[in-house]
């Protein structure tokens, strides 16, 4: 029998998995409605927008995605005119990614749906709860990042 108050007794894995599933589904729904973007695509736009010059490999690392998946996703975003790729002058094998003006507009349109989701999280967690929950999630991520 699990110890009282333990992760097992509280079914933390199940609750985290369900919360992540519902959050992602809702975020994808509102983003697709707003600008035909997925949460992963919006995350790519956000990361690229915050950098003057970033490689596809760096974007994949920041999002903890495989490079092959990132190449395909960036290709789709480039095809829509939201990102541009150029050869890296320092590494002929690498491609530098930048956000286009259309990509910035799409990212701006994505901010409103995310603001609504974040407002719902704030309401659910309360003023003091959100920072504490963020620290707890970071601790969980750190505990499992060590295994990679």
How would you describe the overall organization of this protein?
This protein has 148 residues and is mainly alpha-helical. The protein has one domain (24-145): Winged helix-like DNA-binding domain superfamily/Winged helix DNA-binding domain (Arc Repressor Mutant, subunit A). The protein contains seven helices and three strands. The protein has a three-stranded antiparallel beta sheet with strand order 1-3-2. Helix 2 runs antiparallel to helix 6 (101-125), helix 3 crosses helix 6 (101-125) and helix 4 (56-63) crosses helix 5 (67-79). It starts with 6 loop residues before the first helix and ends with a helix. The mean pLDDT is 90.
List key phrases describing it.
Arc Repressor Mutant, subunit A, three-stranded antiparallel sheet, 148 residues, mainly alpha
CATH class descriptor name = Mainly Alpha
Runs in which pLDDT lies below 50 for 5 or more consecutive residues are none
Q: Return Rg in Å.
A: 18 Å
- Described by the principal axes of the CA atoms, the overall outline is globular
How far is it from the N-terminal to the C-terminal residue, by CA?
30 Å
Task: Tell me what the CATH architecture is.
Answer: Orthogonal Bundle
CATH topology: Arc Repressor Mutant, subunit A
Mean pLDDT, to the nearest integer, reads: 90
Report on the biggest sheet: 3 strands, antiparallel
Beta-strand percent range: 5-15%
Which quaternary structure do these chains form?
A: single chain
Q: So how many helices? A: 7
**Class from helix and strand fractions:** mainly alpha
CATH homology superfamily name:
Winged helix-like DNA-binding domain superfamily/Winged helix DNA-binding domain
Structurally, how many domains make up the residues?
1
The arrangement of helices and strands along the chain is HHHEHHEEHH
Q: In order across it, which strands form the biggest sheet?
A: 1-3-2
- Classify the helix fraction into a percent range: 55-70%
Q: How many DSSP-defined strands?
A: 3
